Amino acid sequence: MRSISRQFVRNFSACLLALVFAVPVSLFAETAHVVSPSDLQQQAVSSSHARQQNVEKVRDFLSSPLAAKAMQDAKIDSKQVKDAVASLDDQELSQLAARADKAQKDFAAGYLSTRDIALIILGVVLIIVIIVVAR
Q: Is 62 exposed, middle or buried (0-12, 13-18, 19+ CB in 10 A)?
């Protein structure tokens, strides 16, 4: 009796393993993670829109009279720096846009002096130049 139950367990295990290895794994995979082309297009459009907004934020920040004066005092070509903004990758651009936006808000609120904002502008310009030169 004992050998019959062992034999049954062995046969059952062998059949189960054969079935597991014989059935393709793709049958068990969920297909809910597949992204539709319209979703991809929508994501690309939103990413492009966000990038354009970030480029505009940084360029507006660098176009302010204070920024122009700070770059002129440091003998930095403002046109070259503004053109270099477009060559930044999305992550770098979003970080600089966030910093520029925060600096403008802090300056408008009176938290930063003219000297502080000039130093921030020069820092942003320096970061842009370093990134462009490193490529």
A: buried
